[in-house]
Amino acid sequence: MKLVVGLGNPGELYAHTPHNAGFAVVDRLASAGEGRWRSDDGPALVATVGLSGSSLLLAKPQTYVNLSGSAVSLLLSERRLSLDDLIVICDDLALPAGRIRIRARGGDGGHNGLKSIIEALGTREFTRVRLGIAPEGVIPDAAEFVLSPVPPDRASGFRQMIHKGAEAVQSICLAGVDEAMNRFNPGEG
């Protein structure tokens, strides 16, 4: 079983924001696999779906992005999963809109959700799928940008990136992280 964690903020206020790109990818995977979200009285909504004979435990921490580490740590512990079983999906303001970057390990890249997970787990050794949300031009207020709804002129591209993000997760699970990096990382394959 793989634990696939999409980062985002709970609630309708944040539902259609760039910061919830991780939630959108796991929602897409749940929908495609006919998974049903449930709370299990824990700090995350979870859904289980099948993928070519194996299972994916999809999770949406309800702790808000910046405190995601406690939910991820608890899910790994409760399900007796290893770091090799973890895939984290998040937005990335340093990547151009629509780009995807897969890494088998690494730093937080300025993302507070990844920082929280690294601190809670005590390691950087987990797979992450970063979804580019940076528009062309200067962003006067990064927090306002990531927490505002995706503008209508960018909605189609955002949906395409979410679809591609779900494909990247499936590729990691089926072919391995190295093969997925070769396929999805721009200019690196």
Put the structure in a nutshell.
The chain is an alpha/beta fold and about 190 residues long. It has helices spanning about 20-30, 70-80, 110-120, 140-145, 150-175, 175-185, and strands at about 1-5, 45-50, 55-60, 85-95, 100-105, 125-135. It has one domain (about 1-185): Rossmann fold (3-Layer(aba) Sandwich).
Care to describe what's here?
The longest helix is centred in the last third of the chain and has 24 residues, at 152-175. This protein has one domain (2-184): Peptidyl-tRNA hydrolase (Rossmann fold), CATH 3.40.50.1470. A hairpin with a 2-residue loop joins strand 2 (44-51) and strand 3. The chain has a 6-stranded mixed β-sheet, sandwiched between helices. The protein has 6 helices and 6 strands; from the N terminus they run βαββαββαβααα. Helix 1 crosses helix 5 (152-175). The protein has helices at 21-32, 68-78, 112-121, 142-146, 152-175, 177-184; strands at residues 2-6, 44-51, 54-61, 86-96, 100-103, 127-134. It is 37% helix and 23% strand.
